[in-house]
Design a protein that fits this description.
about 250 residues; mainly beta; 5-stranded mixed β-sheet; 4-stranded antiparallel β-sheet; 1 helix; 17 strands; about 10% helix; elongated
């Protein structure tokens, strides 16, 4: 009679487990479980982020991205959507074969912009499966960072007057990126508002004085806008519009 001990049972268990694992591996190979299809990588932007550095307002700057197709499928670029209307895009090709690349250029017009900006764009593209003919859509983000130095700064950005009181206030324009500026014209298209350009020989700042006359004001006349035309030392012209609010209950603190 065969006597089964605990040790013998343990050995039989190991053998059975080994046979079961081997069977699963063989079965998995037959069914293709061991062969995983590599996910479609699509386009890769090289680089995906560009720092354009610091420059003066009004300059044009270009960021260049190389779109590399790391798959074996042909990619069709559908569109490029920019986050800012100040940015335009151009491509040297819209169809990119597997292993090939295209060049994307983003042109920034910094006119009217200032400070640190993050400009983003999204490349929308598609591929077609050669077997099923199904179309898949993908999105690739890229971005540019810039710091734009304005030609000048001004304050206040908004004025307010009490409709019951005569008052005056000054708007100060201070050159920043430009060495000097000149106020060519300042106008207010309301009969109750008056403006005067003040000259200060000892300061690079330019000043405009705005006066409010309650005698010429009627409640149905609404608010005003101060329109200022400025010329920089390089001959560049710009225009600023500053809201002028009239309060029937006094100026808000």
């Amino acid at each position: 009679m065969l006597k089964i001990t605990n040790a013998t049972s343990f050995r039989f268990g190991l053998v059975f487990l080994g046979i079961a694992l081997a069977s699963l591996i063989v079965l998995g190979g037959l069914l293709g479980f061991g062969e995983r299809e590599t996910p479609f990588q699509g386009l890769v932007a090289e680089p995906s982020r560009i720092d354009l550095g610091t420059f003066h307002e009004g300059q044009l700057k270009t960021g260049r991205f190389f779109l590399k197709n790391h798959s074996d499928k042909t990619v069709q670029i559908v569109s490029v959507a920019a986050s800012c209307g100040c940015t335009t895009s151009s491509l040297d090709r819209r169809e990119i074969a597997g292993g090939d690349s295209a060049t994307l250029e983003l042109l920034l017009d910094s006119s009217g912009k200032s400070g640190k900006l993050l400009l983003q764009a999204t490349v929308n593209y598609q591929t077609t499966d050669p077997v099923t003919k199904n179309i898949q859509y993908f999105h690739l983000p890229v971005e540019m960072r810039v710091e734009i130095i304005p030609d000048y700064e001004y304050s206040p950005r908004e004025m307010a007057f009490d409709s019951n009181r005569s008052a005056k206030t000054q708007v100060v324009f201070h050159p920043v990126g430009s060495k000097s500026i000149e106020i060519k014209q300042a106008k207010l298209l309301k009969p109750f508002l008056f403006t005067e350009i003040l000259s200060v020989d000892s300061s690079p700042d330019q000043r405009i004085e705005v006066s409010f006359s309650p005698e010429n004001y009627e409640s149905d006349m609404g608010n005003g806008i101060l329109i200022v035309e400025i010329l920089t030392e390089t001959g560049k012209e710009s225009r600023v519009e500053i809201p002028v609010k009239i309060s029937e209950k006094g100026v808000s603190p």
